[in-house]
Structures are given as C-alpha cells and as structure tokens.
Amino acid sequence: MLRNIIRDVKASMGIYKSRDDRVYGLLAEFEHPGALLEAARKVRAAGYRHFDSHSPFPIHGMDKAMGLGQSKVGYITLGGGLTGLALATWLQWWTSAVDYPINISGKPFFAIEPSIPVMFELTVLFSALAAVGGMLLLNGLPRPYNPLFYSRNFARVTDDAYFLHVAASDGRFSLDGTRALLEEAHALGVEVIHDHGFSQLHA
Amino acid sequence: MAQKLQSSPILVKLLDTVEPTQSSALAAYRWTGSVRAFLIPALLGLSALAVSIAVGFAGFKEQFYFSYLVGWSFCLSLALGALFVVLIKHLTKASWVVALRRIPEALAASFPLLALLAIPIIISLFDDHGLYHHWSTDGISDPASSHYDEIVAGKAAYLNKPFFLIRVGFYFIVWTLVSSKLWSLSLRQDLTADPGIPAKQRKVSGWGLPLVAVTTAFGSFDLLMSLDPHWFSTIFGVYFFSGAFMAAFAFIALVCMFLQRGGMLQGIVTKEHYHDLGKLMFAFVVFWAYIAFSQYMLYWYGGIPEETVWFKHRLEHGWETHSAILLIAHFILPFLLLLPRSVKRVAPLLGIMAVWLLVMQWFDHHWLAMPVLHYEEATLHWLDLSCWIGLTAVFVSAFVWRLSRHALVPQGDPRLAASLRFENT
Amino acid sequence: MADTLTIAPPRKEAPLVTGNLGISEITQLVSYHTEKKPPSTWYLAFAISSTLLAMLMVMIGYLFWNGVGVWGNNNPVGWGWPIVNFVFWVGIGHAGTLISAILFLFRQRWRTAINRSAEAMTLFAVICALLFPTIHVGRVWVIYWTLPLPNQMEMWPQFKSPLLWDVFAVSVYFTVSLVFWYVGLIPDLGTLRDRARTAIRRKVTAFFALGWTGANRHWRNYEKTYLLLAALATPLVLSVHSVVSFDFAVSIVPGWHTTIFPPYFVAGAIFSGFAMVMTLLIIARKVYGIRNIITLDHLEKMAIIILVTGTMVGFAYITEFFIAWYSQVEYEQYAFLNRTTGPYAWAYWTMMSCNLLFPQFFWIKRLRRSIPFLFVTSIVVNVGMWFERFVITVISLHRDFLPSSWDYFNPTLVDVLTLVGSFGLFLTLFLIFLRFLPMVAMAEVKMVLPEADPHHYEEHEN
Fold it and tell me: Is residue B246 part of a domain?
C-alpha cells in the first residue's frame, strides 16, 4: 500500500523503477511537437500512466493530452506567503513593542502603518522561495542521474528533439507491444533504455 | 458593404454621435435584446432623479449637491476608466481584448451625456451653500470680508469660478474628442474592415493617452480634491484613476454577463476572457490599495496637521467605520476572494465580485466627498442612494441603447480572430 | 468558427525572430558564445571595466581607512552622492524584473529575446546599489546591525525606519530576482550540459541544471512556478522603488514629502532601467551578431516604453510643481522655486530636458528605429535620471528650514571616482555573464517560434 503510494508519487515526478533486467523504458523520438502531442494522446488512450514527453520547451496542450491536472505549486506558495506574513508581523511587534520598546518621534510602539512594507517584503520572499522549493520538490529535482542520459540521442532534447518515454514500470509495458504502439504513432525511432546506474554513465 | 457613417441629429448626438450601423453587423454580433433593457433603467433613473432633484431643491439642497456629485463622479469614473481601457488596448495591441472592445468604447462615448448631467453641479457652483463654497464664496479672498481665508486666497488664481468652468469645459472637450474619434473609427472598421484603421486608432491613442491622463488628474483635483480646498495630495489623480480603471473592468465583465444571459455573444466571450477580466480586477484592487496606502501612510508618518486633518475627518465621528469598510471591503476581502482561479472563471461568482467592486467604487467616492459636508457625523443619506441609482440608471440605459445600435463586437478588426481563439495558459 | 465571425482577414503578426532562424539554429547561435573564445572587443571591454572595478576597490579602501569625510557630504547635505548613486542603481535594476514579470503577465511575447540579459543587468545593478548604503553608514563593520539578529546590546533594528524597510526591500528584491533568473536559466543550463564537450564543463553545467530533461511533468510545475514568480515579482518591483521613495517622502523635508513619490519613483526606475538595457543590448547585439534575435522591433518597443515612462515622470514633475504652489505652504513653494532658479538650477534643467523633453523625439517613428539615435537617447536618459536623484537629494537638503545652515554641496574626486568605479563593477559582472551564460533565454525564444505550436503542423498538412 505505502509502497504503491511512494511509487505513484515518484512516477508523478517522472522517476520510475527499472525492471529486474535493467530495462528502464522505451524512448521514442518524434518529428515535431504536433506529432509528439498526438503520440502522447495515443499512449494515454492505450491506458499507460508511467510515461512522459520530453521537449526543449513546454508544448501547449500537452498537460491535457497526458491527462495531468493543475499544478499544485500554488498551494505551497500560498503557505509560504502566509508564513512570511505571520513572521513579519510577529517580528516587528515583538521587537518593537515587547522586547525593547523605544519611543520614536512619539509614534506608537507598534502600529500597522509603518509595518506594512516589511510585512509585504517577507510575504513575497517566503512565497517566492516556497514556489521554487515546491517546484523542485514536486519535480523530484535535483536529480543528477537519470537513466535516459544513457541515450546519446537524448542529448538533443534540450536543443530541437521531441521524445516520448514510456517507463517499464507501467503495468501495460511490454517491449514489443509498447514499441508497436509508438511506431504506430509515427515515431522516428524507438530505443530501449537500460539503467546501469550513475557510475557507468560517462565511463 | 462599404458604407459611410452617418452623423446623428443634434439631440441624439448627446447619446450617440453616430447613426445606427447595426444593419451591417454579422448575425452573431447583433443586439437581440428587448427594448426593455434600456427603457426600464431609463424610466427608473429619470424618476429617481426627478424625485431627488425635486426633494433636494425643496429642502435638502446641500445634501443633494453632495449626493449628486458622488453619483455623477461614479459615472464619470466609469467612462474615464473605459476610455483608458480603449486607449491602452490600442497602444499595446492587446489582442485578447478585441472581442470585448465595443463595450468600453460605448461606455467611453458617454461624455456628452455626462456633461449634460453636470448641470446641477454647475448650479451649485453659484450657490452660497454649494459644493465648492469653501473656495467659491464671495469675499473668501478679500481680507476685509468675514469669509476671508488666507490659504484659499493664495489659490484664488486657480480656484475661481470662471477658471473652474473653463477647465472643466476643457476636460470634457478633450474626453469627448478622443472618445468620439475612437468610437467612429471603430464603427467605420465594422463597415469597411479597412486595414488602415488600426494604425489610425493607435495614432489617436498616442496623443490621446497623455492628454486624457493629465485632464483626468486635474479633473480629480478640481472636482473632488477642491471640495476641501486646504488639503492637497499629489497622488490624488492616480488614486482616482486606480479606482476608475478597476471599476471599468468590473463593469465590462458585468455587461458581458448580461448580454450572454440575453442570448448574445454566445461562444464569443468565453471563460478565458472572464478569467483575464478577473485578473485585471484583482490587479487594480491591489493597485488601488497600493496608491491609497502610499497617500495615507506618507501623511500619517509626516504628521503635519494641514495634511493629516483630511484623514482625521475620515477617522472620527463615525467616519472611522466607513474607512474600515473601505479597507476591508475595497481591498482585503476582494483580494482574498479574487485570488482563486475558479472565482475568475465562473461567471456568477465573478459577477458578484463585479457588482461588489462597483459598489465599493461608489463608496470610495462617497468617502472622498461626504465628510466635507458632514464632518461632524457620518451619514448615509437616502439621497445618496437615490442620486446614485438615478444617475447610474440613466447612464447605463444610454449606454445600452448606444450598444444596441451597433455590432456588439468590432467585427472588422484584424485581431478579432485571435481574440476569439484566445486561451489562458 | 473564428473565420466566419470576422469580416477582416486575420492579421499576420510580424515574426518575433527574424532571418528564418530554426529551433536548432537558436541553440547554436546562443550557446556558441559561451563555448568559444569571446571576440576581441570583449577582452578590451573587460580590461577597461575591471580596471575601473579595481579603482572602485581602491576608493572604498581609502574611504574605510579615512571615513566618510573623504566625500563631499557636508552639514545640511548629509546624503550626498552615495545616496544619489544608490537610488540611481536601484532604479536601473528595475527594468529586468519588469521585462521578465510584468511583460510576461501581459503576454508581451517579444520580451523573450531580452529578458535574460535584462534580468542579469538587474542583478548587477542591485549589487551596485547595495554597495552604496553599505559604505555610507560610516561604521561599515557593524552593518549587521541593520539585520534583526540578536546581539550583545540586546537591541533590535528600528522597524519604524524607512531605511530599514529599504534593507528588507532591496535584499528581498535581490534574492527573488536571483531565484527568478536562475529558474529561467535551468532549461538553458540543460542545453549547455548536453552540448558540453569537456568533462569539467559537463560537470559544472550538470550541477546547475539539476538534472533537467525537459519532461512535461516538470514543465507543468515549472511554468506554474514561473507564472507565480512573475505574479510575485510584479508587486515586488513596484514595492522596491516605492520603499526607496519612502526614505525621502516620510520625512517632512520640502520637496521630499509628497504623496506621488511612490508611483513616480517606479515610473522613473522603469524609464532609466529600459534606457540601460537599451544601451547594453545595442552593443551586445552588434558584437555578438544576434541581430535576428534582438531585432530592431525590440528596440523600437523599448523606445516606446521609454517615451511613455518619460512622459509619466515629466507629468509627475509638473504635478509636484503645481501642488507645491497650490498647497500654499511657503516651504514647499520655496523648495521648488529654489530648484528652478536657485544655485542648482542647472541640475534641475538638465534633468527636465533629458527626462521630459528628449524622449519626446520618440514620437517620430524614424528616430525610434535609428540605432545611433536610440543609443544616444539611452545615455541621455540615464544622465537625466542620475540628475533627477541629485536634484531630489541635494537641492532639497542644501537649503533646509534653517537659513543659517545653508550650504553649497561640492563633490570630491573620491565621489566622482567611486561613481565611475561602480560602472566598472556593473560592467565587469555583465561581461562575465555574457561570457559564460546564454545571454538569450533559448527555451523561451523557441517557444514563440511558429514551429513550437503543435497546431502549426496541422495547418500545414491540410
């Protein structure tokens, strides 16, 4: 049960378990973003869940094609913002009205008017850090090693190539069946990815 | 298809400078609502105004002037906000707005009507108990007079009746000129789809925007800030603008919803457009708060009596409740409520927020003006409501009528196709 | 359906990237400059700017050794050039975030060509800005007193002081801008990693790229984060210069205590920041041959923003002036009379002509598209904006409420060399950036190409 949850959470980050025979998945290249989008739709319709598309830039409509919902980063950001706001309010009130009250030009020890700038700044700071931290967390980054790096061709993913990766951990995965599906979706080429671990990567 | 725009007869010009062009509108863009949509508000508005004017002049003159000014400046701010929307739209070539553009254009074409509705304000200028009597009373700059006020006397070169009328007249000429130019260019585009028109619209907006911005700022100094002629704030024009711009987006969203309920604009104005209108309402709620905070905090911190007295009037004798409502209901609650994506994308929820913000825009103007009259006790007079409802209803009925005479969407704009396809990402 | 609903043919928008560059060519054109030896102009520029930086270091050392008496600051003018320079640099540091955040929210897709370098410029300008108040405090070894850290005196910073708000605002701004910039860099660092030929280069880029693979599951959260950061950076950028303006405006010094200061400072900051971006990009696009990515259209759009913000600033000058008279407060009236006709009238009129009048030439399209004119104007604007801060800081202070203490402020050589040296710091950092990092956000530029739209291919097939 718990293992399944962990597996699913990891899969949502794009981290999959390789099979015992070290097969990590199948990597198919597509000609252009349109073809990749179509292929993602097909793979999704065929019932696959552990798959991901890789492209040099985000592709409009891909979330829908892959059946992904709204990102959860917003909630984490909101939490960060509220923390920052509370911290700034407490900090200013406690330091200037409780711990060391000091009369400055007859102004109240603590007043809301001059406290707003710092409240605002810390809200933004904590929100921004929470947003980025949340993004990295939800994406499972940093991830120095990824079995996909074993594919030489995959280096072009940050240039101008479009890939679909179907992970071997998906229940429906089979080397032949999945390959046939990808080829049917007009893949330019399909490659089997093996997971030999980080130490072998650039050896 | 190529037809020429016909100028309206002189009396109709007050409401719409251009003869109807609806016959050449594509079917999907025709007004199909009933005449009740503008007849009912017209009747309601005129009767509310008639009662207010009659009762006001019979026994509540001072109250009437102020109530009327608040209602009128609310309508003025909508028209100016809409004019800014159109000007900025043209200059930034924002394509998503195109499908909605006719609404702010029609709203901005209200200045001749607003000038007509300004008559009671002009009458009050010549009344010893009028709106501006703090600077317009005879003898105010005569050291021998019992009305003498040294500070106001120093401003007499600016704050005097003839110059005031000249200035306000000039503002209206500028606003009318710019808005009617944009209105007729847009309607001509409907008829001819001339590809040269967007460039002309940008040109008018180019010289129009600075002129409208300066006249709006000085208009707000003259019409609202000078109610209390001792007080001054350089940011006041920006404050006026921030509320006006916010209210304009709320109004546009609301009009779209009414039109869609009436079966118009189906499939043309989408969730995506509402989402963007919601975002802009949110943005300008925040911007308003930023400007209001800047003005308040700087005077709070400086603590100079001639500056803080204006806020003191608004923080005692019951006005502190109004100030608190303004803070909570004009900023904190709308900020929190407009934050979730869903509120901006579900029409009824956004509609509630739009009505809310429009009420707050009126409340803001009430808060600006009314403590000058009732500094000794906070009030909310029934005339405030009757004048506001009366003026707004007349203003809106003229707007709806104007809208009904033309295509509801600028069908000849080359960016319309992009606007119809628009999606938030 | 859309086509049956419009009577005009849809407009073909001008391409954002010219010269028919493809996706791969953008990668090549941009990454290339980080991989090969820079052009000789780069070495020349680096030699000059690092010399200036060394001079700055000497000036700061001299200052630390002798104290702030080496500057021209005198009794009424306690805030001399260091504060002028601080506000000047913070202002310049606004365009980057504006371009990355506000233009992003308003879907101005042309920003993709310039946002990376503008953000870098923001960071470096803010570093220069942070330098000046730090060295202006006098006892720089206790600068940590500005932070709420428990200390042996058991005292806390004074949160009612706008100077402390500044510490928070500027450092938060720096942190958030840095994070925003880095997040934007991640995909491009992936590109550099995948192109790396040497092990050391691969290791460094792989470390910073965090294992980026362009996965859609990642893009989904990434894009949301980018949007959120933009939404946070937008009010943040407004707040920073507003807080800087509070430094002046909360006081009761005539000419400082005016409510329009926050939005007016923000407009001025955008104005000067865009001018600086323009100065740098006009040089960079020529030296690096990326004129098809940073096109003349981009420069023209920036010229329009300079025109708009310059006019807004000019409008604020006039409003201030009018309200100073209208207020009937004699001190306010005198402050403005002194600006226009007093001993520093030359500075006031320099400011007026550079900021209000000069940008008005941008009404003429031909001048908006003339590179030499753009270049000259971008420099004139920043001269004008430096003088604006000089006018605000020095003219208001040199004649305060007590005529017996009136004095004329003269900068010293140390003042001048420190300002010049700060340009050395700024340019050195910027040149290092140009050398090692992709100066154009590749992933974002690719996104605005027609080939990036999946529907592009359907239309072709039909």
Answer: yes
Touching check for A78 and chain C: CB below 8 Å? no
Q: Residue C330: is it exposed, middle or buried by C-beta count within 10 angstroms (0-12/13-18/19+)?
A: exposed
User: Is C455 part of a structural domain of the chain?
Assistant: no
- Residues A82, A84, A86, A88: is their CA dihedral positive or negative? negative
Rg (chain A; Cα; Å) = 24
For residue B2, name the pLDDT band (cuts at 50, 70, 90): very low
Residue B1: pLDDT above 70? no
Tell me which chain B residues have a C-beta less than 8 angstroms from the C-beta of A70. 341
Do residues C43 and C50 touch, judged by C-beta distance below 8 A? no
Domains identified in chain C, total number: 1
Q: Are B367 and B314 in contact (CB under 8 A)?
A: yes
B66 within some domain: yes
- Rounded to an integer, what distance in angstroms lies between the CA atom of residue A173 and that of residue A107? 70
Contact C97, C237 (CB under 8 A): yes
Answer whether residue B3 is part of any domain: no
Residue C459 lies in a domain: no
Using the predicted structure, report yes or no on whether residue B296 has a pLDDT greater than 90: yes
User: Tokens 């690096």 sit at which residue?
Assistant: C288
Could you tell me if residue C4 is inside a domain? no
How would residue C14 be classed by pLDDT, with cut points 50, 70 and 90?
Answer: low
Name the residue in chain C with its Cα closest to that of B292: C259
Range of the domain at C72: 14-148+162-450
Q: Mean per-residue pLDDT for A130-151?
A: 90
pLDDT of residue B425: 55
Q: Report the gap between the CA of A131 and the closest CA in chain C (Å).
A: 6
User: In angstroms, how far is CA C356 from the centroid of its own chain?
Assistant: 19
For residue B321, the one-letter residue type is: T
Nearest CA to CA, how far is C214 from chain A (Å)? Answer: 5
| B2: in domain | no
Interface of B with C in 382-421 (CB under 8 A): 409, 411-418, 420-421
B22: which 2 tokens?
A: 């609806």
What pLDDT does residue C413 have?
A: 94
User: Tokens in use for B395?
Assistant: 């203003």
With an 8 Å Cβ cutoff, the interface of chain B facing chain A consists of: 293, 296-297, 300-301, 303, 341, 425
Tally of domains within chain B:
1
Mutate to test the interface with B, among A70, A113, A121 (most CBs of B within 10 A): A113
Interface A–B counts its CB contacts (< 8 A) at 11
- Cβ separation of B301 and A114 shorter than 8 Å? yes
C2 has pLDDT over 50: no
Structure-block tokens of residue A134? 């949340």
pLDDT at position C461 over 50? no
Question: What's the average model confidence in pLDDT over A30-45?
Answer: 89
Interface of A with B in 30-69 (CB under 8 A): 60
Q: Give the predicted TM-score (pTM) of the model.
A: 0.90
Return the pLDDT at C1. 42
B142 neighbors B220 (Cβ within 8 angstroms): no
pLDDT digits (tens, 9 = 90+) for B137-155: 887 878 888 888 888 888 8
